[in-house]
Amino acid sequence: MNQQIEKVNQYYEASIFDYHSIWTSKKDLAIHFGYYDHGVTSHSDSLLKMNEILARHVEITDKDEVLDAGCGYGGSSIWLAKNIGCKVTGLNIVPFQINRARQFVQKQGLEDLVSFRKEDFARTSFPDASFDVVWGLESIVHAQNKLEVMTEFSRLLRPNGRLVIAEYTLREVPPLSKQEHDFIQPWLEGWTMPSLCTVSEYKKLLEISGFANIEKHDVTPNVMPSLKRLEHWLYLGLPIGRLFHILGIFSKTHLDNIEGVKTQMVSLKKGYWHYTILTARKKKKSSNEEHLHAA
């Protein structure tokens, strides 16, 4: 197990209590932020709405085969199968989450449409051109080498296949100073995120990896109520977390997760980052490339 994978496992194992007590329910199975519009009235509905918004951006249909890269408890995979009828394969490097995801799928009776594998989405075992859509909801940020990830996604997609990513992206103008980068480090380290990218940096990675038709959608205002919900919890959670750490109940990894929320929200208010949905299409091969490949 490489070091980053080990850190991600430690992070999710340490934060089980946090997610289950204030965020995730059996209705949504979500460990991501929610999307609010005029029709959303509850936290759980906002989490489900995020699935709907991402699916709409890349026009997923029941004919598609989708790779849910970094699937958590399988909430998005199950939502896609139930609401759209597409086939979904979820990948995850956290064993207890994969086990729970398989249990949830079995209870829903969706084994024919949804399956899960314990694999690193940067290095999968699938053949080339296995999927129509790759879905990355707040998961790519855990990757050490994002170019490696985008290259793998390009390999896995069929020509003209679609990619949708929802992530935290750094401010473009002016670029963050060293002092500002240093300021957000407790958040990145607390949430096991090696680095954040600007939209332009993501675009460059995608273009190098064979993607085109790259579009960005800043949905920070729609995600803000979800972010503020986490901030409100922080007022109670941080003092308790610090006390429990002193008493030996919470690990340092657990406390760092809670401390990271404070840095996340302060840096958001300072305008250091945005919540962005990125979409792209894998380039079709030219006729010359197809001829060479056939030869």
Summarize the structure in words.
With about 300 residues, this protein is α/β, with parallel strands linked by helices. The protein has one domain: 3-Layer(aba) Sandwich (Rossmann fold). Helix content is about 50%, strand content about 20%. Helix 7 packs across helix 10. The longest helix is centred in the last third of the chain and has 27 residues. The C terminus is likely disordered.
Number of helical regions: 11
Q: What share of residues is helical?
A: 40-55%
The main β sheet shows up as: 8 strands, mixed
Query: How big a fraction of the residues is strand?
Result: 15-25%
Tally of structural domains: 1
Name the descriptors.
about 300 residues, alpha/beta, 8 strands, disordered C terminus
Tell me briefly what this model is.
With 295 residues, the chain is an alpha/beta fold. The protein is built from eleven helices and eight strands.
Question: Which SSEs are present, and which pair or pack?
Answer:
Elements: H1 3-14, H2 16-22, H3 43-57, E1 65-69, H4 75-83, E2 87-92, H5 95-108, E3 114-118, E4 131-137, H6 146-156, E5 157-170, H7 178-190, E6 197-198, H8 199-208, E7 211-218, H9 220-246, H10 252-269, E8 273-282, H11 287-294
Parallel strand pairs: 1-2, 1-4, 2-3, 4-5, 5-6
Antiparallel strand pairs: 5-8, 7-8
